[in-house]
Amino acid sequence: MPDANYSSMTRDNFLGFGCSATSLFKEQFKINTFDVESYCERISIGKLATSLTIRFTKRQRMIYWLFWTAYSTKVEASDFERFFGVPLKRMYGFELWLAKRLGFIKEDEGTYEMTLKGAFYYHYYEHFYTLSYIDKMWGIMRKEAFPERIEL
What pTM value is reported for the model? Predict the structure, then answer.
């Protein structure tokens, strides 16, 4: 189990409750509406207040898992295999090899840890991703309780 100080984004799955809460399941990511009145209205009639659902292919879910697990700067190959039922090296062997060659990660018996160089670039691009996609998505959802579609 991860340390207690990890945020929800470093969990394999989680269930969020309340307005603007997020839930992550094996095959999808859900966000509740940001609008309190709309949230209460949906809940009062026994409906989910989900404003956005992203459905993952298995490969997309693997990338999502890796992206947010790497936030802690360490990835355990055994955790990946336990969650997805396939070895990390089978799915991403070339990418891991390349990251090692470029000096972004080091490996010790199935534990991949970012070097300072790797952590710098990871967090640089994670910040770019956050600003480009998450902020745009949340901006739309703050204005519209249940958007029909969001294109990023």
Answer: 0.79
